[in-house]
């Protein structure tokens, strides 16, 4: 939730991400499930990176209720796995995009589609993202690969993008020009702070990278979708929201 409405967000997130997850885990163990895969979040690590990408063994530093609930679930599942003997795999994806994506990514695509000039041409950040198809492929690998169990994995498309690069890819997939204005990022950040939107601006302006090399090297994983294909799949519903079924 980008604009949190709950009176006690910590309790709401814990009810879903911790309590419900643990009930499912207990039922899975009772049914003899040998391996349990938990889709966590890069937010367990934090909200932005500086000199190096987040790694799975970095000290956790969640900054919001969602990230804290995901970390609490990871810790509870690790204790549960040790008690039940179930193999546990934890996956921490960054932003997931694809058909049906919502929130900030959807709003960004809608802005690009509208043709409104965006004052983001000077942004020089680097962000990891993962296409839905790539995340699903990685989860399927984690379900069967002997080396996946008992570990936490970062996953991405293995190609980090600046915000202008992402906008340009979206525009290209839509057959539209990327209308980017070179406004200084310091001015954008200052304006966002004055409006009380610094956190929202950070999701656009800051870098957030994950180290996907262990998944590539230790599990032999290769993302099946390149970024261009992933973006085309994500924008397709906006270009043709009511596809005509094949006759």
From TrEMBL:
Gene3D superfamilies reported for this sequence: NAD(P)-binding Rossmann-like Domain (3.40.50.720)
Annotated ranges, domain NAD-dependent epimerase/dehydratase: 4-148
SUPFAM superfamilies: NAD(P)-binding Rossmann-fold domains
UniProt name for this protein: UDP-glucose 4-epimerase
Organism of provenance: Noviherbaspirillum suwonense
